[in-house]
Amino acid sequence: MFEDPTMTREMYDDLPEESDAKEFYAKYEPKEVLGRGLSSVVRRCVRKTDLQEFAVKIIDVTEQSWTEDRDSVMKEVTILQMVSRNANIIQLVDVFECTTFIFLVFELIKGGELFDYLTEVVELSERETRFVMRQLFEVVKFLHDLNIVHRDLKPENILIQGKLEIKVSDFGFAVRLKEEQLLKELCGTPGYLAPEVLKCSMIDGFAGYGKEVDMWACGVIMYTLLAGQPPFWHRKQMMLLRNIMEGNYNFDGPEWEDISHTSKDLIAHLLIVDPKNRFTAEQALQHPFFESIEYAVWAEKRLRKSRSPRKTPSEKGKFDAKSKFKAAIAAVCATQRLQAGLNRQQVLTFKTMAEDPYRVRGIRRVIDGCAFRIYGHWVKKGEDQNRAALFENFPKRDATKNANVSKTWV
Ligand code: PIT
């Protein structure tokens, strides 16, 4: 069966027996591992008929699997089938079921996870962040309009391709809510959990949580993209959870010095403890953060192109809505350019370089990048905030599902 000379024997380790999954093997040739979960493996695979590449998630649904069962995987499939038409959500292509495994075949996204990109570049510019967050909020709006909550949004579950085009993946915790339904289950990834999810499992009689948890996660993601470290972290997990529940985060670090007030304002409207006051995806998309300079410049150029012939002297005195609009756009552009310049401007003095080189954005990126390459994890920057936190996040599912998991949780 597996006669590909580029594949070693180990690469085929832990692949389901051919007899277990005849239908899948008849159509696809499995290749190298792209990622692993607790009870699943994602591999590249090739469709035999036309050699087109895909990614297959092979999920162990036997008794031994302590995170997955057939029903929950089939619920995930139902949701994936509903949402796959969105261009920024991973597309499900095929599903195969056998007694021990379920195979989910997806389009192949070659750029990897946003998480890996972030660890490589340390932090994203505001422009890149705007580009990523706009797509993310569009996806969340699309899901929430269908009453679907993702519940595990984080950079590991955002795949990228090309110039930061995103594909949201992993709908393993996603649910479709019935009218006004509230959720109680504790699931997600610690650093991205909304306060109400935690309160739900700590406070008896707490009503539950809803879609707003995804918007909190978006706030954590946006903060992390801009700063290169998460807003909530503490080496003691109990303190981390307390910080989350109190909404205790700040923009104090040197990495925030050259970031605009507009970006911080949007994050501040997302990381709001009371879910009723938190921004919805629609509100987030209308925030001034998305009134981009690029768009204004583009609009100005378009206007210049379609400029009408010079006016006659008699026309000059008249009120002209078009030229008033053009002048307004030009003024907005100029102000934004000026503001962007001021925000990014960094006065680099010998004193700063000597006393605190870490304050200088360019130097900070080099230090962080080198540290990561040398140590393989992030170097501690303080008691409360730590890049290593990025690497400690792994999903947890509710106590009610598995006693083992609940022990490790809270
Ligand atoms: C990759 C590359 C790729 C697709 C995937 C991963 C898909 C992951 C995925 C996992 C899920 C889910 C949807 C998508 O519900 O092309 O590294 O649990």
From TrEMBL:
Superkingdom of this protein's organism: Eukaryota
InterPro entries: Kinase-like_dom_sf, Phosph_kin_gamma, Prot_kinase_dom, Protein_kinase_ATP_BS, Ser/Thr_kinase_AS
One Pfam match: Pkinase
Keywords: ATP-binding, Calmodulin-binding, Carbohydrate metabolism, Glycogen metabolism, Kinase, Nucleotide-binding, Serine/threonine-protein kinase, Transferase
Enzyme class: transferase
One GO MF term: calmodulin binding
Binding annotation for ATP: 57
PANTHER family: SERINE/THREONINE-PROTEIN KINASE (PTHR24347)
Subunit structure of this chain's protein: Hexadecamer of 4 heterotetramers, each composed of alpha, beta, gamma, and delta subunits. Alpha (PHKA1 or PHKA2) and beta (PHKB) are regulatory subunits, gamma (PHKG1 or PHKG2) is the catalytic subunit, and delta is calmodulin.
Family: Belongs to the protein kinase superfamily.
Protein name per its UniProtKB record: phosphorylase kinase
Species whose genome carries this gene: Branchiostoma floridae (Florida lancelet)
